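Internal tracking record. Fields below are filled automatically when a chain is submitted to the structure queue. Please do not edit lines marked as system-generated. If the sequence contains nonstandard residues, flag them in the REMARKS field before resubmitting.
Queue: standard
Priority: normal
Entity type: single polypeptide chain
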Amino acid sequence: MDSSCVNRVRQNQGRAFRRAGVLLESGLVGELPPPLAGREIVGTFEPRVSLARRWRAALHPWLQSPAPLGPPSLVTVLQLAPWAGQSSSPKAGAPTARGRSIKALEVPRLAPWALIATIVLPLSVIAQQPRIRTLTYEPQQKEWVELPPPPEGTAEGDLYAIKLQIHDGHYRGALWAIKRFITKYGKEDPTYPEALIAKAEALIGLKDYAKAHVVLQAYLGEFGGMTLTAEALRLEFIIAEAYLSGVKRRVWLIFRVSGEDVAYQILDEISSDYPDSPLAELAVKTKADHLFKIGDHALAELEYARILKDYPRSRYQQFSLGRSAESALASFAGVEYDEAALVEAEERYNDYRLRYRQQADREGVGLILDSIHEMRGEKDFLIGQYYERTDHPGSAVFYYQGVRKGFPATIAATKATSRLELLGVLEPVAVVAP
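SYSTEM-GENERATED OUTPUT FOLLOWS
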């Protein structure tokens, strides 16, 4: 064997086993496959075929296994350790001719990463990777018992394998498996609704929210009364949250537009069509929070008020009442415009201070109410000024007196008093020097 070929083999050997070490440390593989574990690697030597390609060819079918793999073990680390150190020359009796068998190179000492791995990696056995489990409650034993996975070759077994693929993140493979599943068992099979849910979940994993929404709408339209409806609503809620977070949707495969309208439609359907669902209340709150975030305070106030009315025992009562008052106040355009929003805000804040006194004091609700009184008094004073300018003194006096009576101790009340004195309705109050 020429020296260049030997150097190439050594370089590829080190690169291949460093890659194998990374796979072990990351948890993607749990142990070496049976052809490579517990024995020396024997193969035909071809100078033009790198050792890294040999390893990829050997590990490829094993890495594609759908079964969940456990964390790396100490035995695996010790098996790879001799390959992780510095390479040495072949044994004395090893053949070197092209096309003959050679044995794996052996190194008497461990590499630094192998010494660390032998100490750290066994601890990962404690933290097992999550897996799919089916539990059922046994009344006699008074505990939850794990059911064994369904047998392979049946509809339940094939669907279980699809769920495993989705759980492991193999969404495209799961979609192909679902397509074969529907072709094999048909839409009349009892497991077909579960296949639709699995298809929608795989599409969400691929971030194809538009197609997932179409699948879920088809499920809810045909199988809306089944027990899986809660899972379908959960997936719909995920799609709505994705659109509200800024994800765009495609129109005519070219344009990318906002998906907020679709998100609002999904949330409205959940809250109106399934009011007994645990997600119904959360759907209303999610819509209200987003409207409040983008500055549409008028609609946000209506949604928060809906929570207060439709869900009196909601855990979001205090939050919704405070946000409703804040939204009503923010939707008031100014003293030159209608004061209906201002009156609504005053009522909400008074109710909030009455029900949550300590929290209201910490948030300064009293100061907010004082500012609302000032704005309402200022608005009535401006109306009185308008009638005074248009030669309607009677109407002007009416509004000025209303400001003094309804909003005392405000700046507007002081100005209204001075205007009444100028109109001759009130006697000027003498100011006594101290």
